[in-house]
Amino acid sequence: METLRERKKQRTRDALLRAALELFVTQGYEHTTVDEIAATVDVSQRTFFRYFASKEDVAFFVPRLTEEHYVEAVRRRPPEEPPLEALRRSVLDSWDTIEQAIERYVPVELFLRTYKMIEATPVLFAAHLRRQSETEEEIARIVAEREGVDPDRDPRPRLVVAVFGAVVRVTERHWSVGDDFSVTTIRQLTASYLDQVGPALTGNWREH
């Protein structure tokens, strides 16, 4: 059972998280200081750094939860599913259950606004791509284990994950510049773009 001290610490962390994200999406990541975040919650800068290593750390707190949510979804897929289908179902299921992963910390709407802010902020977007690369490596090793192959000898796990990851990045980019940034929209875009992978790779684009 959590102690009163532990609950108080969690409330402080969650308040700092929400204040930071609200400031990031309203006035911009680069125009927000740690002092401003701390002042919004009426704590010191020192207190902020007890919970978060940096502004980047707090910006990616919720995305980290969603990445873990997706990875676990991949681990739970039935072993008989082909790799690409397992990845497809995992990412769509992750969007369907996104609230379960983050509702304790922030509303989904604030997370999605943060998602768009990351896409539009060069320094965060670069970090986002690096994080995606790391997640893709983890997923490739999960796929390799599912299929009973060595990812360092067999290129297929990394190839299928690379193709899948590219589709996800295209989806995120198109969604982030649109007017409708709901969960429903990004889920529909993801499903639609994944459905086009086969025809795009193997079909004749000039056929009418």
What do these coordinates show?
The protein has 208 residues and is mainly alpha-helical. The protein is built from twelve helices and no strands. The chain has helices spanning 4-27, 34-41, 45-51, 55-59, 61-76, 83-96, 98-102, 108-120, 122-147, 156-176, 183-195, 197-202. The radius of gyration is 19 Å and the shape is globular. 23% of the residues are buried.
Identify the notable features of this structure and list them briefly:
76% helix; 0% strand; mainly alpha; 208 residues; single chain
Percent of residues in beta strands?
under 5%
Note the run of SSEs as H and E. HHHHHHHHHHHH
Number of helices: 12
The major pleated sheet works out as: none
Which geometry do the CA atoms define? globular
Using the CA coordinates, give the radius of gyration: 19 Å
Number of strands: 0
Q: End-to-end distance, in Å?
A: 64 Å
| Arithmetic mean pLDDT | 91
How would you summarize the topology of this molecule?
Layout: H1 4-27, H2 34-41, H3 45-51, H4 55-59, H5 61-76, H6 83-96, H7 98-102, H8 108-120, H9 122-147, H10 156-176, H11 183-195, H12 197-202
